[in-house]
Amino acid sequence: MTPPPTSKPPAEEKSSSSSSTSPKPTGETSAPDPAAAAKERMARFRALQARAKTSSTQNLKEATRESQRLQADPSQLTALSRKHAIASHKLLKAEIEDSGGDFERKRAWDWTVEESERWDKRVKKKVAHRDDTAFRDYGRESEKAYKRQLRNMGDPDLERYTREKMAAIEKAAAAGTLEIVETEDGEMIAVDKDGTFFSTADSTTFAQHKPDKAAVDRLVENMRKQEEAALKKRRDREAKNGDDGDVTYINEKNKQFNQKLGRFYNKYTAEIRESFERGTMI
Q: What role is this protein assigned (predicted)?
């Protein structure tokens, strides 16, 4: 009796089938996930949106601050600062005096002697200038105008002065009227031989000076501004007093008298005045 054929165990059959059907590795990477890429792009977009919103808000704040700064009147800010300083000064003075201290002595602790003297000189000059604004005489007015013009001249051109001075010295030395002598200390001294180089009370060399074009233009501009200011004052005075016509008075009292006469008699004397103007009554 022959034995029945033997069969493989189920585990061996499964392993053999799996080994026969498993795919071989190809070495290729898997494709990126579309959902993750879209999520990353959305995150970058959100970050750009937040940055743009922050920049817009900051620009709006800066524009608002600049607009408020331009709308603020500098004169009002200066006046407020001055009022605040005056109020603080008065409050500090009252507190020190209430405590029995010397306000001026305590305030002087914060200043040096030179600063205190300069400040006293400045205050004295300011008070004198304030008291000197009223009209005294034409001589005083001319002096004030002269000092004002000197202040508006600006700083002197020392470089141009030195250059012209050296050119004049070299010219006089070449002509033989000036001798350059060196002292023992190494200092150079110009010796005038015939007394024609240095100016005296009888010298007229100042009339030979020729200003440059910038100085002439500055003088013309200054004269133009003075003329415009005088014309403006005259127009304002005429508009205030109603002096549009001819001047028929010699002072303010005579002007008022003529105005009173005109209110009553102008309607009767209009024809006579017109005839005088035409010359038909002569």
A: Involved in pre-mRNA splicing.
Question: What does the block give as tokens for 156?
Answer: 């002197």
Cα dihedral: 48, 51, 55, 61 (round 10): 140
pLDDT recorded at residue 280: 61
Q: Distance between CA atoms of 281 and 274, rounded to whole angstroms?
A: 9
pTM assigned to the model: 0.39
Structure tokens at 57: 């808000």
- Whole-angstrom Cα distance, residue 148 to residue 125? 15
Residue 11 confidence class, pLDDT cut points 50, 70, 90: very low
Helix (H) or strand (E) holding 22: none
Predicted confidence (pLDDT) at residue 219 exceeds the cutoff of 60? yes
Rounded Cα distance, 42 and 46, in Å: 6
Q: Nearest Cα to 168, choosing from 132, 197, 127?
A: 197
Are the CB atoms for 176 and 193 separated by under 8 Å?
yes
Integer Rg of the chain from CA: 49
Half-sphere exposure of 76 (CA within 13 A, CB side): 5
Q: Measured between alpha carbons, how far is 85 from 249 in angstroms, rounded to an integer? A: 51
Residue type present at position 10: P
C-beta separation of 103 from 97 below 8 A: yes
Q: Is 189 exposed, middle or buried (0-12, 13-18, 19+ CB in 10 A)?
A: exposed
% of the chain surpassing 70 pLDDT: 82
At 179 the three-state DSSP class reads strand
Dist CA 159 CA 212 (whole Å): 14
Count other C-beta atoms under 10 Å from residue 116's C-beta: 13
